[in-house]
């Protein structure tokens, strides 16, 4: 009898031990299934998000190096739900196994998906700038290879018809519409001093990359073609600097700023050069003897500097180089030029032509241009050109460089952020 009691006690003890072990195993299985579910859901939605981003506009990328997908929040939500439910046990796989013995340890049930795209809108200058920086990381190296870009000849520059944007609906839809101020201030440029190209590069790598992107992707006075792309404006970089709807006015405004800047620099050279300074003072003393000679000297020196600046602009238009800070060998015009003129459309070449070309001077102007307006006007040009080439319905407000969404699965919230 005692033996039977001992056997019964052992059985009870083993049963309790086995029950405890099964309970522990059940707890571990439950924890493991929850961990597996979290990992599985993360993987599914990461892949689903990448599938959405894979639908990027290839023409936009091929022409401007910009990754963006055309999307609406409701459409993205439906696509994410479809991708997720196709991977959870809520599809034909479930139908196939529903009559078989099957334990679904994950028990995944998608309740809802909420998408928010606004933080990744392409007309957000931070999003657009980040895309530019990513693109330029390899484009800078790529630019050393021979390209298809061609320079304007003087005759081509003069024969281009004038383009004016008059459509108010299109103007109202441009990303820069409503942005106030931000144009290039030539007086500020002169007050702060004109940096060298190396100083521009060293001051801000982000600014440098954006400016190089502009010069690489858009046309200007000395570049009239870019991989056979059709553009609305021919003076695209000049539009970025000026923002006028008249193509020719954009160039004239930039050219005027160029002449003003060169006049100030040339005037500095005249007063720093003893021979030129004495020549101007001698004539001023003859014209207005006495104390008034100083004021007359300034007027004559300014006229000489202005004539030299006009000649500088003509040289730059012809693809020549003009030194930023001149010496006597870089100087083109003698003093008689301000009396006789320098000819209609002609340019006098100095003894030595070195320094900066038209594009280099544009780099200086871009450096001083407000960051936001610079990026917004880039977007203007992209939108105008894409509308003209691929359809009037194109609108950058419908394009996004990433997405943010929340998925609710089995009562648990999962948050995701994905971008190109």
Walk me through what this model shows.
This protein has 420 residues and is mainly alpha-helical. The protein folds into two domains: 2-121 and 402-419, no CATH class; 125-397, no CATH class. Helix content is 58%, strand content 6%. The chain has 17 helices and five strands. It has a three-stranded antiparallel β-sheet with strand order 2-4-5, with helices on one face. A hairpin with a 2-residue loop joins strand 4 and strand 5. The protein is elongated, with a radius of gyration of 35 Å. The N and C termini lie far apart (79 Å). The model is unreliable at 148-159 (pLDDT under 50).
The first-to-last residue Cα distance is 79 Å
How many discrete domains?
Answer: 2
Low-confidence stretches: 148-159
Helical segment tally? 17
What is the average of the pLDDT values? 85
